[in-house]
Design goal:
The protein is mostly beta strands. It is 6% helix and 56% strand. It has 4 helices and 36 strands. It has a 22-stranded antiparallel barrel. It starts with 6 loop residues before the first helix and ends with a strand. The N terminus is likely disordered.
């Protein structure tokens, strides 16, 4: 069933208004006759919730199932809190992740709807929604208006999501329903035709607050600095929570987002790989280009809190994502006179992912010490319908004298030709053993049974299959609280990734396997208002697909790469009113075993060797300036490049500065001004190939937002 993206949100908004009115009347009547019985209300919040905290740090994170502080997590982790998202007017998940230490975002279209995330030189492969993994793919994420925080974990996350890349994972944590009525509304305007409105309403549906709901609706229209481009978005999110018992809560909900945009697949370079010095408004496409994206997320969760502090949680999630694009794009190098060959392609894509997860996390008393135990099971199934794309006839085009109104050809689509099904069943667990008052050993792993089957949609015949059998990925960590403010850790983790390349026998090659060693130091200061961490890591990833040296168009599992580096981050409040988040990352990636042309070369050239992210905000306390806050930041990337054979496309490093100013008008109203790319720096944000996929960074962008909270 296809619902309007705002239907669920509108329905819940109406229900909340009615219920709140009824609750007020009921409370007044009841108070005159008898007191209500005592009922425990969870308020839909927990220790990890950042909304309303006003902080740039999270007290706890939930990315590892066991809810714990960042200091207790033996991996490099960053959290983009609700306050950071609001202060910087970050409405796209991709923009927020790019500001996290060591993260690279690879943009695949001008509007930024298609992206891939990289960490430590590797694609993430999957992201998590409330701890449930889904394949990342080339699909847009949902608007940040529905999230409380974004947790970024760097390094292997095989314990959490099984067959996965070693780079890490991103956990998107949704907003929960509050027991007390809360109303939020934002209106924003800005550069390039931005017009955005958000409504966020939540509260109890009965007098006790044991039944709660929340609804978020977003309407956003924007144009672009690129000729003819636009990007219009509609989001509806709603959730209902019911405390069916003092210690048991059921949560259900859904979100739907629709995007209607014009697709841009980037600029070509000259034949020798030199980047063209073109206006940033240049568009290698036609006005008829289109991009239609739709995502539906339906979820249910049952949580039971045990008397001893443990928790049992059952969750189910169904994600349905469709994408259609009609794209005129460059398909050749750029000539000196601005001409190139343009191709047209239509494509239709569909992915559906279902996930079921159940786990128990509980403290355990053994030998006079408190330990923690996690055990769980999961089932993941993803279906990808593929092959429904076709090309039109190529034609000449000129970037210096563009005619965007050329007729777009009629391209009949053949229909989906294959169905790829990925399944994984898994058992996972971890024991946190307290060896001494200051020393903990974390030992765990995930036992998975995975398979990938590709079938022809016309005949039903299996065209490719992979059954790697039983796979076990262990993880170990030792943590030492050698000082009341410091924790040192050493961790080891493994990964495996099912590959899609075929052998000479037309079978999928064996999975890739990887392992990481990480050494780190974490600290908490100023009554835990300030957090810091630093980490050294090395990843070895082998059995990578490389061309078969004997048979053309076949592959063998013989490649090996290494990624190593250093990360450091500090976040929080150095003093009251002063918020700060700053991070630095160094990455070095190399081919250790590869064809001769790649041997010893950089494995992930799109990952800059050095990167820095910095943002700080100060809220004035002087009576004459009370209510004002000012902020600023900088993002710096060292040079990066793309390479195909001997051809290299170099992108110079760049630094982009940002600024922010806000004023708290009263307890309920504030106005926020943010300026991105303050100095209007011209730079290439992404380079990829000679024919296309080279993108300028966005010019100076100004956004003004009025925010109301009741």
């Amino acid at each position: 069933m296809r619902m309007h993206p705002l239907a669920l949100a509108a329905s819940l908004l109406a229900t909340l208004a009615t219920a709140q009115a009824q609750t007020t009347a009921t409370t007044a009547t009841t108070a005159a006759t008898a007191a209500l019985p005592e009922v425990k209300v969870t308020d839909g919040a927990d220790g990890a919730t950042t909304e309303g905290s006003g902080q740039y740090t999270a007290r706890e994170v939930s990315v590892g199932k066991l809810q714990q502080t960042p200091r207790e997590t033996p991996q490099s982790i960053s959290v983009v809190t609700r306050q950071q998202l609001d202060d910087r007017n970050l409405t796209k998940v991709e923009d927020a992740i790019k500001l996290s230490t060591g993260m690279t975002i690879t943009r695949l279209d001008g509007a930024g709807n298609y992206n891939s995330f990289q960490s430590r030189g590797f694609d993430l492969g999957a992201i998590q929604l409330d701890g449930v993994p889904i394949p990342q793919g080339n699909y847009s994420t949902l608007d940040t208006a529905m999230y409380d925080r974004i947790e970024v974990l760097r390094g292997p996350a095989g314990l959490l999501q099984g067959a996965s890349e070693p780079g890490g994972t991103v956990n998107l944590v949704r907003k929960r329903a509050p027991a007390k009525l809360a109303i939020g509304a934002d209106a924003a305007v800005g550069s390039f035709g931005l017009r955005r409105g958000t409504v966020d309403v939540g509260g109890g549906l009965n007098a006790e607050g044991t039944i709660r709901a929340r609804a978020v609706a977003v309407v956003e229209d924007r144009d672009s600095h690129i000729d003819t481009l636009f990007n219009n978005k509609r989001l509806g999110y709603g959730t209902l929570e019911w405390d069916i018992a003092p210690s048991t809560t059921v949560s259900v909900g859904a979100a739907q987002q629709r995007v209607r945009a014009a697709i841009d697949q980037g600029l070509p370079t000259y034949a020798d790989g030199r980047l063209a010095d073109l206006p940033r408004s240049s568009f290698a496409g036609l006005r008829a280009n289109r991009q239609d994206l739709e995502t539906t997320d339906v979820f249910a969760e049952l949580e039971h809190r045990l008397a001893g502090g443990g928790v049992v949680r059952l969750s189910a999630r169904d994600i349905d994502r469709t994408a259609f694009y009609r794209s005129a794009r460059a398909n050749s190098a750029l000539a000196a006179n601005g001409s190139f060959t343009m191709e047209t392609v239509d494509g239709d894509f569909h992915v559906r992912t279902r996930n079921y997860d159940a786990f128990l996390a509980t403290p355990v008393q053994v030998a006079g010490r408190t330990h923690k135990l996690l055990v769980g099971a999961s089932h993941n199934e993803g279906k990808t319908w593929d092959g429904n794309y076709a090309y039109g006839q190529p034609r000449p085009f000129n970037l210096l004298r563009p005619n965007y109104d050329l007729a777009y050809p009629d391209i009949p689509l053949p229909g989906f030709t294959s169905l790829i099904t990925r399944r994984e069943n898994a058992l996972y667990g971890q024991a946190q053993v307290s060896l001494a008052d200051t020393v903990k050993l974390l030992a765990g792993g995930r036992l998975s049974w995975a398979e990938v089957v590709t079938r022809s949609t016309s005949t039903g015949a299996v065209t490719a299959a992979a059954d790697p059998g039983r796979q076990f990925v262990p993880s170990l960590a030792l943590m030492w609280d050698f000082h009341p403010q410091y924790t040192a850790y050493a961790s080891y983790a493994e990964t495996f990734v099912v590959q899609s390349q075929l052998t000479t026998a037309k079978q999928l090659i064996e999975p890739r396997t990887g392992k990481q060693v990480e050494l780190g130091l974490k600290g908490e200061f100023l009554q835990k208002r300030l957090q810091a961490h630093a980490a050294l890591f090395r990843i070895i990833d082998e059995n990578r697909a490389i061309p078969d040296p004997v048979v053309t168009n076949a592959s063998i599992a013989g490649g090996k790469v290494r990624a190593q580096g250093f990360e450091a981050e500090v976040s929080g409040q150095p003093q009251p009113g002063w918020d700060l988040v700053a991070g630095y990352a160094y990455n070095d990636t190399r081919y250790l075993k590869a064809p001769v042309a790649q041997q010893g070369q950089v494995f992930s050239p799109i990952t800059p060797r050095h990167s820095v992210n910095l943002f700080t905000r100060y809220a004035f306390t002087h009576p004459a300036l009370r209510g004002f806050s000012v902020g600023g930041g900088m993002s710096w990337r060292s040079e990066f490049f793309a390479q195909s054979g001997a051809l290299r496309i170099n992108a110079p490093g760049y630094a982009v500065f940002n600024a922010q100013l806000s004023y708290q008008i009263n307890d309920h109203l504030s106005v926020n001004l943010s300026v991105d790319n303050l100095l209007d720096k011209t730079y290439y944000e992404k380079v990829s190939g000679v024919s296309r996929q080279n993108f300028y960074g966005e010019p100076r962008r100004v956004t003004v937002a009025l925010k109301a909270r009741y």
